[in-house]
Amino acid sequence: MSKPGKPPASDNELHDVVVALCDANDHLAEQLSRRRNEQPLPSRDVIVGLVEDLRAVLFPGYFGVSELSADNMRYHVGSTLDHIQRVLAEQVKRGLCFTCELEVGEQCADCRQRAENITHQFLQRLSHVKHLLATDVQAAYEGDPAATSPDEAIFCYPGIQAITNYRLAHELHKLEVPLIPRIITERAHSQTGIDIHPGARIGERFFIDHGTGVVIGETCVIGKNVRIYQGVTLGAKSFPLDEQGNPIKGIDRHPVVEDDVIIYSGSTLLGRITVGRGSVIGGNVWLTHDVPAKSRITQARPFE
Asked: Are residues 74 and 135 in the same domain?
């Protein structure tokens, strides 16, 4: 017979735990209160749901409601967009309030109006995002001999999922929305292992094959018709520091990859280097210098 477990904590014991935790977090509570003026933060769960609604709008019938036809698609897309517009405006407002320095009364009115304007601009960009994603899907189908159809790439490929999240987040990033773009791309990161910063600039027909372990930094610039494989890092070589020893923000520190480049698995490209158009970077290459157009870079072979 097993021994009985320890009896549950008494009310007094739980009270002591609550007090200890709250005392330990006093500085965080004060900081949040001071920065947010008591406004709620964006909800990660709500934003995750919004991304799935947007995915259903961009790929109707593939995600969300599957029982769609030519007759009811417009109603479904319109209804979903109406929901997205209202909910996204609220989440954007919360993000703006988090970083706003105005007093509470001014803050609410100013942030609400900005959030509505940002949401309107974002929705106007969805047709452009749809166009880019259509080229990404076609590149995935053409670039992978195992793909049986573009539909399979939409349904199943983690690269398409991560790129969809990135392209949505990138538009919000350009509109200077705090927090939410990173929440969107980090959601894809946690699900697919593909880490794309929303600040990266990526052209059409972008294909990530397999995908696990891919890292694309904030200031990367990637041209058209670029293909990369699992384990590729497009990262920073070093972090210049200010007089206080803190990393300097906002400088270009990640690679520029021009059109028609292929980067095979496990390669690491660091710093503000340029990989010229039409180049091929072989597997497991460590690269920290510029590469001319149409180069073929492979590992050195010490033994034949």
From this structure: yes
